[in-house]
Amino acid sequence: MNTLGSLSSASRPYPLALVLVLLYAALVVYASLYPFSGWRYQGVALWAFLFAPWPAHWTSFDVAANLLAYVPLGLLLTLAVARSGSARLAASVGLLLPCLLSLALESAQGLLVQHRVPSQVDWILNTVGAALGVGLALWLLRSRWPARWNAFRQTGLMPQNHGAPALLALWPLALVYPTSVPFGLGQVWYRLEGTLYAWAEGSFLQPWLPVPLPEPPLSPLTEAIVVALCVWAPLLLGYAVLRRVGQRLLFMLLALALVLGALLLSASLTWGPAHAWAWLTPSASLGLSFAVALAFLSLALGHRAAAVLSLLAWVLALTLLNRAPAEPYFAQSLQLWEWGRFIQLHGLTQWLGALWPFAALWVGLRLALRAAPRQVYNRRA
What we know:
transmembrane; membrane
C-alpha cells in the first residue's frame, strides 16, 4: 500500500528529527523575540494585529525570511511525529503546531514596542512555510528516505556518535554570522573581556583587573593556519563517526560545498551579491588549500585518532583566534547585522557561531573517550 496513512509505518523516520525540531523551535523563538528588551503592554489586545490593515510596504527579504524560516520546522516536526505510525497525524501536527507557535510569537511581539511589529502577513507566511515543510516531509516518507537514513545509521555511522551528525548539520548555519577570519568560529574573548570590564567598572574589582594590551593582528600565514584548522577540525569530527573511507570522502565534498555556500550567503547579505567573494583573500585561499590537503590525508584515520586530532585542531585554532583583535571592517559588518535588517538573525546566528566550536570540543572529547566496541566470541563447550 502507498496510502498517506501507511507511509510512516513503512519508513520509521530517524529519532534525530525530534532533537532537531526542539532545537530549531528554540532558535525560532529566540530569533523572533530577540533582543528580549523593551517589553510594554500598550493597552491593545495582543491578537489585534490579525484584524489590522495589511502592511503597506513589503520587502523581498522579509517575505523570503518569514516563508523559509518555518519550512524546516514543518519538515522536522512531521518526520518526528510520523514515528508514531500515522502520517496523517504527523501532517496535522506538522502544520498546526508551527501555525500556533507563529501566532503566539507574533502576539508576543506586540509587547516589544521598539523592536518588533506584529503582522498577519508574517503569520500567514510562516504557516505557508510550515505547509511546504510538511509537503516535503510527506514526499520524503513516500520516497522512503527516512528508511534509507535508518539503514545508513546502522551501517554507516558509529553506534555512539553523541549527536555529532546534528552538530555538523548546524555548521553551515553557524558560519552565516560574520567572522573576523573566514571560518573562524568561536572568537569570543574580546566580547567576554569587554563585558567583564563593563561589569567591573566603578566597583572594587576594577583596580584588580589587568590592563588590556593591544594585540597585533594575525599575520597572513597565521590567518591561513587558523582557516585551515577551523575547516579541518569539523571534517575530522565527521570522520570520527563515519565508518568507511568512501563515506568520509562524500561527506568532505558535501560539507565543503555547504560551508562555502554559507560564507557566500553571509557576504552577500552583508555587503551585497557583488562582494560575495570578498572574504576569499590570499590567506583564506591558502588556508582552504591546506584544509583540503589535510582532509584528504586524514581519510584513512581511525575513529579515535580523528576525534583526538579534531580536539587538538580546535584548541590551537581557538587559541590563535582569540588572541587576535577585531578588525575595523569586521566591526562594521557586525553593525550592519546588529542594527540593520538582520536584527532577527543577529541573536540567533551570533550565539550559534560563538558556541558551536565549544560544542564540537565537547562532542569530540566524548568521541575520543568512547569505549571500543566489545568483541563477542563464541565459546565452545
